[in-house]
Amino acid sequence: MFLTFLQSAIRFSAVFLFGSVGETLTEKSGNLNLGIPGIMCMGASGAIVGASTYVAAVGGVGGITAWGATLVTIIFALLFSLLGGLIYCVLTATLRCNQNVSGLALTTFGVGVLSFFGGSADTTGFTVISGFFRQSFPIGDNPNWFETLFLSYGCLVYIAIIIAVIAAIVLKKTRVGLNLRAVGENPATADAAGISVTNYKYGATLIGSMIAGLGGLFYIMDQTGGVVEYTIDTYGWMAVALVIFTVWRPNWAILGSILFSILYLLPNYVSVSFAEREVIKMIPYLVTIVVLVITSIVSRRESQPPAALGLSYFREER
Amino acid sequence: MAKPVAVQMKGISKFFGEVVANKDVDLTVYEGEILSLLGENGSGKTTLMNMLSGIYFPDEGEVVIEGEPVVIRSPRDAYRYKIGMVHQHFKLVDVFTALDNILLGEEMPRYSVKERAAELKEEAAEPRYVVDNDDAEAPVKTVRATDTKAGRAKLALRTAVLPVVKLFKKAQFNWLPRKRGQKAREIAAKYGFDIDLNKKIYDMSVSEKQTVEIIKVLYRGADILILDEPTAVLTPQETEKLFDVLRNMREDGKSIIIITHKLNEVMEISDRVAVLRKGEFIGAVNTSETSIPQLTEMMVGRKTDLNIHRGDPVGCEERLTVEGLSFTDHEGVQKLKDVSFTARSGEILGIAGIAGSGQRELLETIAGLLRPSKGTIVYHDPATGKDENLVKKSPAKIRELGVRLSFVPEDRLGMGLVGSMDIIDNMMLRSYKRGIPVKIDKKHTVNVPLILDRKRPRQLAERIIQELEVVTPSTHTPVRRLSGGNIQKVLVGREIAAAPTVFMAAYPVRGLDINSSYTIYNLLNEQKEKGVAVIYVGEDLDVLIELCDRIMVICAGKVTGIVDGRTTDKETIGLMMTDSLSSENSEEVAND
Asked: How many separate domains does chain A show?
């Protein structure tokens, strides 16, 4: 019982992990992308469009192949979320619109996009494609605890963790990461050091968006098993909260996302009343507020958000 | 001049909208010299140098290096031509270590697949000569690697994997090595910088940050160093240290351009002086052949009186009595220890001390911004004759009591003015609570609260602009767009307009040019003549002695003495500033 609970929590955590790693990268460039929930919705929309286009192209369920289906779906999900990120970048980095407004607008837009494609697409064959995404390591019918906890997930869960680890390493150990952090902390300094602020903002935001978009894909294709659901923006907001919770560290997000998903799924595994259930669902946000309070009391400079987060950068402004 | 030319600027002009920042400037910098770029605020010194360092691009004119005109469009271009600039507002990332800041933006070596492929091809096609003893007719044979099938296959394979090699090379260079910064440490040692490169910037003092900036520029290979007002934030001792380092660099053949308006320093450090006025180049002279009055004239355009006219104290009633004041900050450091003094009307009380000795805390405690742990601050009201204790009262409360206290804080745009608001709005900060005056009949007006009166603040703003000669495009320009001197004039003007009885100013001339500085001194003297008790915190001891009637010396939060400005000298004050410091330190060591 507890094992299954933990297993499903770890699996579900991928949604948060994709979202928060993507948002962390974006925020490290100084872009406070509140459009992440929308971008995750767009990733999901991409997956829906990709899968239904693929099924139509191969002539029905019979023609589906594992590699073809997964690749096409992933590519579409990436393209859709890339488009979301691009909208955000053009608005904030090129046109220098207010980041909060642009982000919130993008979220509203993404939710709409998901409703549109989710409602209109032909979902024939989705369960089959979902089966490919959910394909785990070969474990028997009676897996032991190790196999259950570590080997029983679809590829996207592992990809999420690998991406989080890579993101952490890139941020901490590489020149690209150093430059990116400099752009988010003090764009004028980065600019004077010869770093292209715009390129880094675009790069980080677009890559971050694509990673977040995979979260949407994961939810539709793995978590729900090919059934279109419209709750993705909720998880998007939790992912944004998770970024603060993990004080902008993708490696901590791995554990943080599992914690969030444990808290989120807990009501399904314990018998509680409706009211108690809703209270438990609030806990992740409460914990985030507590973390915010603690980090601001401790006021360690390394635990603070990037100094230029949410600000547009103009070179010739004094 | 025997020295070779390092860089030449010819006919440079730069316009910001309708504002002419630089007009037809010609400037030549030689190798191995220290050049001072002198000019008043807003004379276009920084703009000119920003064009050399790639922040701005000139609208007209050209930059010539080694006889060739060059285009500098970005800081990176500037580094390519070995030009680096230390800006007045440091460009450092606070949460990084000094080293990471220095390494930031280092250019990655290029790895071109195409070039490498061409190289491999050439290598393979290179003929080799093999001696074949069996063949009597032509024993020496030319063999190429591409002649055999295996050789061609090898070449194709090596070419094919090049993109992968490139990826690895890039990743390898991208990796930040654990032991990095050997070169930066060598530079620091070479020029005599004393700094821990693993320290985080936010833990550093201003002088340390400046050191990091200079090492950063040197690390990037700059031979021409531009320093924008490097001494504005330094103590005299730190300035000396900096100058030593700069002299070391000059010995090393580097060219150094110092943007400044401090004439003493110009005379002390530079070999040549170039003067700008209102964006135009006035001339360049050798420091050894010029004098301070001549430079002032070049800079200001007319002969300037560099004397402060100190009148005798007027009235001399006790206005503010501070008794046993102590203050401990939130980190538990005791910033003020048992401070007692009296400020009298009609005189200027100077406060001297090493930066950070508690001057700021003292003024902020009096202004009601900080709460002292002990002591009293008694204000003697000249109108009512009553005494008021100001301790633990907020600034608003103090004003309600009718205490007319004006405060020019050292942090002008942080505490004094709101940078993004215009001059009128900044005037309103002091008056908005009064509300709008409404005439009820011919004799009486009442102030209706909650509705803003823009008329009087606008008149005040216009008056200040006119009387203090504030240079601004309009009253609606955000104050942070003004130059330092003009910002200060706006602030001082507003505080004076409040008709204070106590006027406190902390470093009011910091970062200001001569003309603006003397305007401020004159304003302080005017206030004194009006019978205001002026408290002036300054750093330039010569000015303190010339300006103040009495000087209180403060050291590590303790008053070490109050001397008469007319009879004292620099050495006495300097001794009081430092002598007790050393005894203070020994005391602390004993306590530990």
From this structure: 1
